[in-house]
Amino acid sequence: MEFPFDVDALFPERITVLDQHLRPPARRPGTTTPARVDLQQQIMTIVDELGKASAKAQHLPAPITSALRMQSNRHVIYILKDTSARPAGKGAIIGFLKVGYKKLFVLDDREAHNEVEPLCILDFYIHESVQRHGHGRELFQHMLQKERVEPHQLAIDRPSPKLLKFLNKHYNLETTVPQVNNFVIFEGFFAHQHRPPTSSLRATRHSRAAVADPIPAAPARKLPPKRAEGDIKPYSSSDREFLKVAVEPPWPLNRAPRRATPPAHPPPRSSSLGNSPDRGPLRPFVPEQELLRSLRLCPPHPTARLLLATDPGGSPAQRRRTRGTPWGLVAQSCHYSRHGGFNTSFLGTGNQERKQGEQEAEDRSASEDRVLLLDGSGEEPTQTGAPRAQAPPPQSWTVGGDIMNARVIRNLQERRSTRPW
Ligand SMILES: CC(=O)SCCNC(=O)CCNC(=O)[C@H](O)C(C)(C)COP(=O)(O)OP(=O)(O)OC[C@H]1O[C@@H](n2cnc3c(N)ncnc32)[C@H](O)[C@@H]1OP(=O)(O)O
């Protein structure tokens, strides 16, 4: 990547390491030194352009690396410049690697949640013209040495297929430990961190590991004091989270727009009405119009009035719709996953979510059962009219409660009819 300024003079070393201050490195003796602010502006331009190129290469809707994001996060960026070719005497940039420590909640191979703060690979890009020339490895290797970290100790923020191949080829990283977030960790991540799974050890596992283990210290920071198990949430914020907002608005705005054009395969018509293009708009027969008018004039049924008065939260259908949120979130997390395979374990999103999901499913099937029962589907014809005739107490709208009662009653009836006493 070329720039209209002297990259070669700006970055004297082949690999330059920048933190959130984006400070220009010391220049070679003898080179003219422009104003510091200009140099920083040049660095910001390079970071912005690299971020854009990386996003394009990864088909991301927006860059996840920019000067602004660098300045507002405690990340470190390794920039590799081209020392061989010197187009127009100004040098060129080959690529970059961005890393940073992040607090994550990761699952170990026993599916226990662990609060850790590993070094994460956040963004990585080598210019298309020089990929597969060993530059990525050179940059990665430099970072490993500088950060004093082993490849298996890293967490990778949604690695691209190319990066997965890269890690496999150069570092033999293949087997992943399934996670419920977008980070990928590999077998060996917990290698020297396994301790008895007591919660008191879990929170301090890193600081202890650093003292007790002879192998290189885990790239972890000291964590805050242990929190109650309930406080630990089974997700971790990815640097790419903000992209979700850009991709899809929240419910209900994310619902598919109404079809303006007819579907490719319209459902088969049940009658010939409307099939002829010559026919004008169909009007109902006069008796139907009269019927409709009489229905409009008909006052609401007293039961309906009573139900409306005792139901402050709107219709039950509406309430049921809003209760589906956890599934919606799960669906969203799947939608945004770059690799569906990583998220196949979302069903293990912690007991709480799983239970909630199961409860939802149960509620839904329960409500369907309930409709069948109230339909008078042959099971309990005497009950179909009864609940409508009386004003139900407010809590009777709890679908699960109703169905439980119905099931108990049915169970009792069955037992009564099948047993001789
Ligand atoms: C957390 C994240 O940052 S995810 C985003 C990662 N970045 C990208 O996907 C952007 C596009 N890709 C790239 O920029 C580069 O290919 C990188 C950064 C992944 C690797 O850099 P390179 O300089 O190409 O890597 P290097 O030459 O050292 O190693 C080559 C190996 O990487 C892998 N690799 C690189 N490019 C490809 C590719 N197009 N297809 C498949 N594997 C590839 C292969 O294992 C390859 O070995 P091989 O050529 O023997 O098959």
Notable traits:
alpha+beta, extended, 15 helices, single chain, seven-stranded mixed β-sheet, Aminopeptidase, binds acetyl coenzyme *A
Write a structural description.
The C terminus is likely disordered. The chain has 2 domains: 235 residues, 3-Layer(aba) Sandwich (Aminopeptidase), CATH 3.40.630; 120 residues, no CATH class. Strand 6, helix 4 and strand 7 form a beta-alpha-beta unit. It is of the alpha+beta class. It starts with 6 loop residues before the first helix and ends with a helix. The relative contact order is 0.08. Helix 13 packs across helix 15. It has 15 helices and 9 strands. The strands form 2 sheets. Strands 1-2-3-6-7-9-8 form a 7-stranded mixed β-sheet, with helices on both faces. The protein has a two-stranded antiparallel sheet with strand order 4-5. The structure holds acetyl coenzyme *A.
Strand content: 5-15%
Largest sheet: 7 strands, mixed
Mean pLDDT: 68
Number of strands: 9
CATH superfamily of the largest domain: Gcn5-related N-acetyltransferase (GNAT)
The helix content, as a percent range, equals: 25-40%
- Gyration radius (Cα, Å) is 32 Å
Class by helix and strand content?
Answer: alpha+beta
Q: If strands are numbered along the chain, what order do they take across the biggest sheet?
A: 1-2-3-6-7-9-8
| Cα-to-Cα separation, first versus last residue | 89 Å
The ligands bound in this entry are: acetyl coenzyme *A
User: What is the oligomer described by this structure?
Assistant: single chain
Corresponding CATH architecture of the largest domain: 3-Layer(aba) Sandwich
Subcellular location: Cytoplasm; Membrane, Clathrin-coated pit; Cell junction, Focal adhesion; Cell projection, Axon
Organism: Mus musculus
Catalytic activity: L-lysyl-[alpha-tubulin] + acetyl-CoA = N(6)-acetyl-L-lysyl-[alpha-tubulin] + CoA + H(+)
GO molecular function: acetyltransferase activity; L-lysine N-acetyltransferase activity, acting on acetyl phosphate as donor; tubulin N-acetyltransferase activity
